[in-house]
Amino acid sequence: MDAPALPEDGKLSHNIAHFARALRRAGLPIGPGRVIDAIRAVEAAGFTEKVDFYWTLHACFVSRPEQRAVYDQVFRLYWRDPQFLEHMMTLLLPAVRGVQEDRLADAAEKRAAEALLDGHGIDLPDREGEARDDDAQIEIDASSTMSHEERLKTLDFEQMSMAEVAEAKRMLARLALPVRPLITRRMVADLAGRRIDGRRTLRGALRQGGEVTRLMHKAPGARWPNLVVLCDISGSMSQYSRLVLHFVHAVANRKGQGWARVHAFTFGTRLTNITRHLRNRDVDAALKAAGAEAQDWSGGTRIGACLRAFNRDWSRRVLGQGAVVLLITDGLDRDDTGALAAEMERLHLSCRRLIWLNPLLRWEGFAPRASGIRAMLPHVDSFRAGHSIASLQALGQAISEAHDTGEKARLMALIGAD
């Protein structure tokens, strides 16, 4: 039996188009061509079975494995009516609003719901019989939007509302952290090089009967360093850590920034390697898996013990060949400061640059009075704030400029004055 054709006056095509827009808001690269293909595919396959309808749209909209979780959640929320077949045949809108779950949200489920309810449902298709004002005009004040984004960039992560946190995560996902390549001693062929490559010149001459017709040149080669992130997830750092890890995930998954590899570790009362979780391109699934493995989230702080574990177990594996280390912590540690200073010194000597991001620097009157901060500060190359989007944007300067010390010099002067 032939598949039923889509009614000319129905709204199933309209619903599929809106479903595609929701997927696009959730991060899937879907253009108008895929929407047209999906509508044609449904016309060919029909919609008598929900599972067939699911896989028909899946074939049109999903192109990478990491997109499956988002697609599954958006589909479940959008086409969730239990009387699916009846509503498909009558072409009514699915019930989305007012749905509540008693369990914890799965990976990508929150993002799917936000995509469906984007703009408080303004873009949702109209129900049958509902009035629609085609003459309504919407005015957007671009200057207000820009000023809002600029304010959000400087807003403290801990002072953000839930809506601002969601918007901040989207902005952090677009941030980049470029790095300059390291010049090596190994020479490589280079037509514009200043040094003559005698070996390649002679080899070329042998092909010409021993006559040197062209001089070959060489220049020092370049390679990219590793980025190692040590992020404090104790109770005082919880809100900052969640947003910083969104930024680290974006850096780890963005190609062309120059980093050879990005390694990430969390610490509170123990050290946890979350590098493999950040390789998942879906940020929600990646951070959910990282949070499940880091059992000490929002707990106490033992910076010295965790740095000792890193120096003992991971330092030689990830800090070779000029790695850059980002240490994100407030430095509030009550353990033995002598041991903390020794581990910081060892970490500093093992990497090319050690940059400390501390959210406490957001206070204008900040002074290094805590014993943990006093023990750690002498052993870092740069000491910078890490409490806002703007502070993470400025991090690129600290990495690119070898002589950038941030606030270290000023605070070291305060320590000396004491």
UniProtKB/TrEMBL annotation:
Transmembrane segment boundaries: none
InterPro entries assigned to the protein according to its UniProt record, in alphabetical order: UCP010256, Uncharacterised_CoxE, VWF_A, vWFA_dom_sf
Domain VWFA as annotated: residue spans: 224-393
Gene3D superfamilies (alphabetical): von Willebrand factor, type A domain
Record-given protein name: VWA domain-containing protein
Species name: Paragemmobacter ruber
